[in-house]
Amino acid sequence: MLSKYSGLQITIHWLVFLLVVVAYCAMEFRGFFPRSDRPLINMVHVSCGIAILVLMVARLLVRLKYPAPLITPKPKAMMTGLAHLGHLVITLLFIALPIVGLLMMWNRGNNWFAFGIMMPHASEANFDLVDTLKSWHVTLATLGYYVIGLHAAAALAHHYVWKDDTLRRMMPGKRR
After folding, report:
1. Rounded to whole angstroms, how far apart are CA atoms 123 and 154?
2. pTM
3. Could you tell me if residue 1 is inside a domain?
4. pLDDT digit of tens for each residue in the chain (176 aa)?
5. Distance between CA 107 and CA 129 in Å, rounded?
6. How many domains is the chain built from?
7. CATH number at residue 37
8. Which end is more exposed in the chain, N or C (fewer Cβ atoms within 10 Å of the end residue's Cβ)?
9. Does 69 map to a domain?
10. How far, CA to CA in Å, does 140 sit from each of 7, 24, 55, 143?
11. Which residues lie closer than 8 Å to 31 by C-beta, 6 or more apart?
């Protein structure tokens, strides 16, 4: 069995990471831009979200073909269980978050753009639903900070504390 994820899996992982950084930065730093640039910032955010959704679904499909490589040395069963739970949370979060965002944009009932293309929208706005979806979107995005932080901390702990190859399995480069 290989000691690393496939090149496709590694590419998807780091591409999702970069898109998440850009999506979060677009929202966190939009206040530094003139109000006239807000539609562009929002389009960047939405476009990243759609790309993340597509890549996360692709990642699940690729995972069916390429199983996770074994960790050396093998971690305790509890650690493996926690890792599976963590990956499940990340996967569900970064699928649900864009879906909630897309539903929010649809239900605003006005023009919105992704990838420079005008997207379809509901013929009538449903502002009560939009407010609810926005609240969920913000809550999930906030949860994302903690989940990403735990994921990164766990990868670093595997590398520096438990000294296994968990982190190296997802790093770009030659496979052994």
Report:
1. 46
2. 0.96
3. no
4. 678 999 999 999 999 999 999 999 999 999 999 999 999 999 999 999 999 999 999 999 999 999 999 999 999 999 999 999 999 999 999 999 999 999 999 999 999 999 999 999 999 999 999 999 999 999 999 999 999 999 999 999 999 999 999 999 999 987 65
5. 7
6. 1
7. 1.20.950
8. N
9. yes
10. 29, 12, 18, 5
11. none
